[in-house]
Amino acid sequence: PLLLQALEKASGQGKAALINALGRTRQPEAVDALLQQLKSKDPLMIGEAARALGQIGDSRAMEALIQALPHAHPRVRKMVEEAIMDLGAAAVDPLMEVLHASDPMMRSEAVRTLGLLLGALQVNQAENWRQLQKKAVPALMEALKDQEPSVRAQAAFVLGGMKEAQALSALEQMAQQDTDPKVRLKAQRAA
Q1: Nearest-5° angle of CA 9, CA 35, CA 14?
Q2: pTM for this structure?
């Protein structure tokens, strides 16, 4: 509670340090205040709030973190991505839902984050990573057909990294026939 009280009055680097401390101490009662910080105009506060929310690991942060994925500032995007990955397997379904969002950058970032998350779950030998990967493959295969080239390219990269047999023919076809040369190149490298 003392850190939360101080957070209300703080600004600048002091505020960022308090947000960081709330994350390190994993205080679940700080989630609402940290969610408010995700709405800040200051990239430093948004990034620190995302990191703290990931450290706390409370699923209430999931939707707000996913909405922050397409932030204009690359460092913020990376911190949000890492926070979502900290939430682990629980993030797979919400990320797959975002693959149908109207914002192409949101879809592209969701594909990227989903790929990173599945890779991290595999490396950490999460109990159900194989099931989660199999569940994600159809959604990623559908993303190969997205109107936005950046989404198709991300999906090709992620599927190529997964080495999923069912994606191989789609990637080979995409490498030959996609209308965008960058997407064709990504698909060639992935196949």
Answers
A1: 30
A2: 0.89
